């Protein structure tokens, strides 16, 4: 409730998350809240860490400083990623958001490695940690602050589908675990002479490094071209098949140019015996409908499909039966027979998902293997078989 109150107070038209400016304002608000909370925690923990001579507390203080830098970079990233498209970047600057998140993860990783190094030195040369009740209470106060910041970032990240903010939320939750470890170190120092400060510092540094690596993976994946969300793929296919002239959908490819900047293309199988002008109009309407409802740029390629032919129907049934012997073949499409008499070509594509453990050699020979089986019954067919990968499978 409190989060919604903050959002409604600082973001105009906050429900319209598909608007680029509204989305940018969400990112700015989240970054500013991160700045405020982390600056407060940095000042508090650095002061306490120096006062009680705890490397673990100082380590987490500088982790908060890294989070301040992260908030600044995220803020700049949201501003730059919302720049309009230009001649050099016709699909906009949306991927800057991923680049800013990548820089943030690098900062977190470096900070973690540095404090592992410092903590290891503390293990080799242990120093006493001085317990102080006031300092202990202040650190306890930091935990709900980080919990709130984690929930705030995750909530907004989920609302606007921002991997950067979701990662920031997860990072803030990591801080809660880190602070809990620091409290453990202080409690041990209060009731014994055992020094675990360096070991806890290594644990803190290790968690920071792990957080940095996780953040880095989450931001590199979309830059490299990760598989699309299965729910989005399902929605696109379902909406396309609502068009009464589209009989099937295949070769769906989704290009991500940043949050809210997605281009999709796919092949739609359509009847061969309907006016090309009629089909073209229907396809245009479908492109517009999907674009408006999902906020995507859509391109549909038409594949005419011969239907009602007894020869094609019989051959298709036979091929379908043969393909059952190849469990890694997901589907086939663009099935057609061209030519006359004994000079006929049987043409179709088969689809093999990327997650199937099939050797490259098997894939190279797959078309010939299926062709030989078809020719056992239909020796007059010259089979042309193309092996496709399913780019939308996850």
Automatic annotation (TrEMBL):
Please provide an example of a Pfam family that matches this protein in its UniProt record: ZT_dimer
Task: State its location(s).
Answer: Membrane
Quote the protein name from its UniProt record.
Ferrous-iron efflux pump FieF
Q: What is the lineage of its organism?
A: Bacteria, Bacillati, Bacillota, Clostridia, Eubacteriales
Q: Which SUPFAM superfamilies match?
A: Cation efflux protein cytoplasmic domain-like, Cation efflux protein transmembrane domain-like
Q: Which family does it belong to?
A: Belongs to the cation diffusion facilitator (CDF) transporter (TC 2.A.4) family.
Q: Where is the Cation efflux protein transmembrane domain?
A: 32-224
Q: Tell me what organism the protein belongs to.
A: Clostridium felsineum
Give the keywords, sorted: Membrane, Transmembrane, Transmembrane helix, Transport
Q: Which gene is transcribed and translated to give this protein? A: fieF_1
Q: Which residue numbers delimit the Cation efflux protein cytoplasmic domain?
A: 228-304, 317-388
Which GO CC terms are listed, alphabetically?
A: membrane
Q: How does it sit in the membrane?
A: Multi-pass membrane protein
Give one GO molecular function term: monoatomic cation transmembrane transporter activity
Return the PANTHER family for the record.
MANGANESE EFFLUX SYSTEM PROTEIN MNES (PTHR43840:SF50), MITOCHONDRIAL METAL TRANSPORTER 1-RELATED (PTHR43840)
Q: Where are the transmembrane segments?
A: 98-116, 128-151, 198-216
């Amino acid at each position: 409730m409190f989060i919604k109150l903050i959002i409604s107070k600082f973001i105009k038209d906050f429900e319209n998350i598909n608007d680029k400016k509204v989305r940018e304002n969400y990112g700015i608000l989240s970054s500013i809240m991160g700045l405020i909370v982390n600056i407060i925690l940095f000042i508090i923990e650095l002061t306490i860490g120096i006062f009680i001579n705890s490397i673990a507390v100082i380590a987490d203080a500088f982790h908060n400083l890294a989070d301040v830098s992260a908030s600044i970079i995220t803020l700049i990233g949201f501003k730059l990623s919302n720049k309009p498209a230009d001649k050099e970047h016709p699909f906009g600057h949306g991927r800057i958001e991923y680049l800013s998140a990548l820089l943030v993860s690098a900062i977190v990783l470096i900070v973690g490695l540095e404090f592992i190094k410092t903590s290891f030195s503390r293990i080799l040369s242990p120093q006493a940690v001085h317990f102080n009740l006031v300092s202990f209470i202040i650190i306890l106060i930091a935990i709900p602050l980080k919990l709130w910041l984690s929930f705030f970032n995750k909530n907004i990240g989920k609302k606007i589908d921002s991997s950067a903010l979701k990662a920031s939320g997860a990072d803030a939750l990591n801080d809660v675990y880190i602070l809990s470890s620091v409290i453990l170190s202080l409690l041990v120092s209060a009731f014994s002479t055992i020094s675990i400060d360096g070991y806890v510092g290594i644990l803190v540094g290790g968690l920071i490094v792990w957080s940095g690596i996780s953040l880095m993976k989450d931001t590199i994946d979309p830059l490299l071209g990760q598989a699309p969300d299965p729910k989005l793929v399902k929605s696109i296919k379902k909406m396309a098949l609502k068009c009464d002239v589209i009989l099937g959908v295949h070769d769906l490819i989704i290009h991500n140019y940043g949050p809210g900047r997605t281009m999709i293309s796919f092949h739609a199988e359509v009847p061969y015996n309907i006016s090309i002008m009629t089909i073209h109009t229907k396809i245009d309407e479908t492109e517009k409908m999907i674009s408006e409802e999902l906020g995507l740029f859509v391109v549909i390629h038409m594949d005419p499909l011969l239907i009602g032919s007894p020869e094609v129907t019989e051959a298709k049934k036979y091929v379908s039966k043969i393909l059952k012997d190849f469990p890694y073949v997901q589907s086939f499409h663009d099935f057609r027979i061209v030519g006359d008499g004994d000079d006929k070509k049987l043409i179709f594509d088969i689809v093999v998902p990327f997650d199937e453990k099939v050797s490259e050699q098997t894939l190279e020979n797959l078309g010939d293997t299926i062709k030989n089986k078809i020719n056992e019954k239909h020796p007059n067919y010259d089979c042309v078989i193309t092996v496709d990968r399913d780019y939308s499978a996850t």
